[in-house]
Write a structure and sequence with these properties.
By secondary structure, the protein is mainly alpha-helical. The chain is built from 13 helices and 3 strands; from the N terminus they run αααααααβββαααααα.
């Protein structure tokens, strides 16, 4: 059985494409991949850490490499698994840093952005709206396809990832108008290669995430003393919903969290909020 056939017997076609891509990159880096040992794989992980890819991408890549060695063992080409017990600290969940979070009003102000390139204005407003209204992650936005947007029902389908569940979320009225114009006018003028991905770059290709990070970087001057990126925006939206008294399970489904405990960590107690106020106005030391 070939590697691709082995993967297809266990996973969806989309997942198989991702695994094969990651495995090919790894094989290109390490010509002796079939006989690699633990150190070889950690060397490759180290090379990834020296690039600008995200911690989650590194974890996903390691998962793909594990699949490759699963296949080699299954097909009798190896008797041992060199990375089965590798555990990385990359991407491990940390406590929510309350001082970095934003109120709903502060998030709304992000939509008021002066554009250097007017043709990008509508696309960037859509990206920001998906961050501040639907609390989407960077990857969540880049995976949206045209068929996932249902303007008649005012809904958008968010695809499952390795860490988040699939879900269908409501769109705001202003988003419906923006998406309609973007899909039927702006995107048609942008597109340079055939793709179903909703968000395109200035070059007319599918957005991979770099543009979203750059966009949030340009917004940091609005709040220079705090971290502003897709992660802290998402954390802020989830925290604000819980502060408003929304049911934990509803917020869990909205955020796509696989476990209630993940959502629970966003809850703020009065004591925690008091600590922030004390540190803000009466810093110690």
């Amino acid at each position: 059985m070939e590697l691709a056939d082995y993967l297809r017997s266990k996973h969806s076609e989309k997942s198989v494409r991702r695994y094969l891509h990651d495995i090919k990159q790894y094989q290109t880096y390490n010509a002796n991949h079939e006989t690699a040992i633990h150190k070889d794989i950690m060397d490759y992980i180290g090379s990834l850490r020296r690039t600008e890819i995200t911690s989650q991408t590194i974890l996903t890549t390691l998962y793909s490499i594990r699949k490759y060695y699963d296949y080699l063992m299954k097909s009798g080409q190896r008797e041992d698994h060199p990375c089965r017990f590798i555990k990385l600290r990359d991407g491990r969940q940390k406590d929510i840093q309350l001082q970095d979070l934003f109120t709903t009003a502060e998030l709304e102000k992000l939509l008021d952005r002066k554009e250097r390139y007017p043709r990008n204005k509508l696309k960037n407003q859509i990206i920001i709206s998906l961050l501040i209204y639907q609390a989407l992650s960077n990857g969540g936005i880049t995976r949206i396809e045209l068929s996932d947007v249902n303007l008649e029902a005012a809904e958008i389908y968010i695809r499952q990832s390795s860490t988040l569940n699939e879900r269908t979320l409501k769109l705001r009225s202003n988003q419906i108008m923006m998406l309609y114009k973007y899909i039927h006018e702006v995107r048609l003028n942008l597109i340079k290669e055939e793709t179903d991905i909703l968000i395109l770059t200035m070059r007319g290709t599918a957005e991979k995430g770099e543009g979203i990070h750059y966009l949030t970087e340009t917004l940091r001057k609005k709040y220079p003393s705090r971290k502003l990126n897709p992660t802290t925006i998402r954390q802020s939206v989830i925290t604000n919903l819980l502060k408003e008294g929304k049911d934990l399970r509803i917020v869990q489904a909205f955020a796509g969290h696989k476990h209630p405990s993940t959502t629970e960590k966003y809850k703020q107690t009065d004591v925690e909020e008091l600590k922030i106020e004390v540190l803000k106005y009466h810093p110690l030391g």
